[in-house]
Amino acid sequence: MGEVFVAGVSMLKFGRYKDRDVTDLGGEACLKALDDAGLTMRDVQYMAAGCLLQANAMVGQRILHEIGQTGIPVVNVANACATGSTAFREAYYAVASGEIDVALAVGVEQMGKAGLLGGGGGSGVRTEGVVGSGLMPAVFGQAGMEHMRKFGTTPEQFAKVAVKNHGHAVRNPLSQYQVETPLEQVMAARMVAYPNTLLMCCPSGDGAAAAVVVSAKKARELGVTVRVRASVLTSDPWTERDLTQPDVNTLTRNAATIAWERAGLGPDDVDLVELHDCFATAELLHYENLGLCKDGEAGRMIDEGETTHGGRVPVNVSGGLLSKGHPLGATGVANIYEIVQHLRGRAGERQVPNAKVGLAHVIGLGSACTINVLST
Amino acid sequence: MSDSPASGPATQGRRPIVPFLRLPESGEPFLAGQRCDGCGAVYLGRRQACAKCLGRGPFREVPLSRTGELYVWSIVHQSFPGVPVPYVVGVVDLPEGVSVRCNLIDVQPDPTALHFGMKVEMTTGVSQQDKEGNDVVAFYFRPARN
């Protein structure tokens, strides 16, 4: 396998684009990433596009109809919330195979106000609220309750995740929200599914992000130094209750183990982490899953500010999904955008000083987990 | 059915909300598991091969206990339009080694009323009618009474 570098990235501010569509948003992200890399569609040899809600609608090709029909191979991927990061991984492997030098990954989504409730059956018989809940806030609420059961984690500790990430977002102009939320406000907000209040749930929205990945040879030509040290995808293995209550932990742990091994790095080496905080409860679980702390220490970690900007290992300095937003297909590529900007020293006011290694993690329920480790 | 009455579907009978809820002619309703002969893993619903040991079974149907322990829970305050809130949901561990997702009834939607590991028992009730007018019988769990 050849080495793979990131030559260019882009991200459109997450939010609502009522007068635009996914090809328009995705096309803009692609062109900006190409501009960032100093390349054009003429240089691109492979494209992977992720758009979950239009998974059957050839979004990648439709984007090329707007920005350049060069006849290259295009794949459209769908992998729940890991859709964008799976597209990135497809582009990574296309280059790593040695067959090509330049690939483009794009993630785009237009959700309107659909929200992350998810679920819904077609049988005409309602099961939600009868046979438990398949709604995402409840699923991740229960995942947090499991942590509470095992380690005595408190609702307040989960709420502190929202305080931190909304606080981080103030310094990210591309974040959907840029408003600080004190602890009292988070805890007093309307309850969605215990223990997650409204401010502990990510918003729905629209957005797009893109990345250009290149071979070592092309990277030398372009003077590019950000390298993908590992690009890992796992699915949920059999675990005791996974089929009843999706187990978001084991597949993340598996992915982290593989990622650290492939990268030749460990949790102590990482300067910043963008992880999948779709709900505040999820973030604390992943501190342990990614090895940022020992099992049972996530509550202490948030209490002591270790994951706040300036702390031992800053997590979600972009504002995370909670504040930056979570347009499903765009999220995984946007996480990589964030890491790359820090590694290049271009993250502006929120720059993590001297960032050398970053990790981007995404979970898609059903389940899929991606971890990308990047370094300068 | 072209000959259904114009006044709306009549009650035809009853059906379970999920295939693994069994409604015997006589005796109490129960949940049915499929147990892998190879490794003993129990599933709700049929399997072609075992997700745990990869064996092709065979799978034997086992009636599951009507009592279990509450593993985790949540209280849902926002749901699909038309679904009454709040409601209490949870995951119940059954002694046969399988867990089941459910609504919890006869308990206040209040975090102080719910405990990890609390003993719960299954009950059933008509949740709704389907398009054909059948009563759709659902299972619920409630705090155990003894």
Low-pLDDT runs of 5+ residues of chain B are 1-10
Strand order of the largest sheet of chain B: 1-10-9-6-7-8
Sheet with the most strands of chain B? 6 strands, mixed
Instruction: Give the number of DSSP strands of chain B.
Output: 10
In CATH's first tier, which class of chain A applies? Alpha Beta
- Average pLDDT confidence of chain A is 96
Task: Tell me the structural class of chain B.
Answer: mainly beta
Q: What would the principal axes of the Cα set say about the shape of chain A?
A: globular
Q: Which class of secondary structure composition applies to the elements of chain A? A: alpha/beta
Distance between the termini of chain B: 47 Å
Biggest sheet of chain A, in brief? 9 strands, mixed
The succession of helices and strands of chain B, N to C, reads EEEEEEEEEE
How many distinct folded domains of chain A?
1
- Uncertain residue ranges of chain A: none
Give me the Rg of chain A, rounded: 19 Å
CATH superfamily of chain A: Thiolase/Chalcone synthase
Large-scale geometry of chain B: globular
Describe the 3D structure:
The complex is a heterodimer of chains A (376) and B (146). With 376 residues, chain A is an alpha/beta fold. Chain A contains 12 helices and 11 strands. In chain A, the strands form 2 sheets. A 9-stranded mixed sheet of chain A has the order 3-2-4-7-1-8-11-10-9, sandwiched between helices. In chain A, strands 5-6 form a two-stranded antiparallel ribbon. In chain A, α1 packs across α2 and α4 crosses α9. Chain A starts with a strand and ends with a strand. Chain B is mainly beta. Chain B has one domain. Helices cover 0% and strands 44% of the residues of chain B. Chain B has no helices and 10 strands. In chain B, β3 and β4 form a beta hairpin. Chain B is globular, with a radius of gyration of 18 Å. The termini of chain B are far apart. The interface between A and B is large, with 34 and 40 residues.
